[in-house]
Amino acid sequence: MPNKHEELPVKSCTIEKLVTIPTDVDKVLQGEKTATRRSGVYADIGEVMELQGTKFKVEHIYSQLLGEVSDTDAQAEGYENFEAYKDAILSIHPGMKWAPQMRVWVHEYAPVNA
User: Fold this and answer.
1) Whole domain around residue 86: which residue ranges?
2) What sign results for the dihedral spanned by CA atoms 42, 44, 45, 48?
3) Mean pLDDT on 58-81
4) CATH number, domain at 19?
5) 52: phi then psi, degrees, rounded to nearest 5
């Protein structure tokens, strides 16, 4: 289990950039995607992002090595399994090589119930 209480670095981007790919936005709205991995921190815990009028609250942020990503993690990202997630990431970033020792920041979020 990741350390969900580790100290977070200063945000390197804004929450508006956390989920931007249209298919990913659709997955979040349909409840199929509840996490996003980024190379930096894009939100603060408790911060709210809005996608097409629906609000989602960031509940957890923690670091993880790409080599630690499991099928369960990939499913939270909206993919069937790890291999599908890895293939998608590599297709989004042409020329990128999969680096198992690369540290990423996991942002987990859930809908805000009105």
Assistant:
1) 15-111
2) negative
3) 97
4) 3.10.400.10
5) 50, 45
Tokens of 22: 């249209």
Residue 5 lies in a domain: no
Is 46 in a helix, a strand, or coil? coil
Name the token pair of 26. 């659709």
Residue 82 lies in a domain: yes
Q: For residue 80, which of 36, 39, 33, 37 has the smallest C-alpha distance?
A: 33
Domain count, the chain: 1
Q: Which amino acid is at 54?
A: T
The Cα-based distances of 72 to 1, 6, 30, 43, 86 in angstroms read: 12, 22, 18, 22, 13
Q: What token pair was written down for 24? A: 């990913």
2 occurs within a structural domain: no
For 26-61, how does the pLDDT look when each residue is reduced to its tens digit (9 = 90+)?
A: 999 999 999 999 999 999 999 999 999 999 999 999
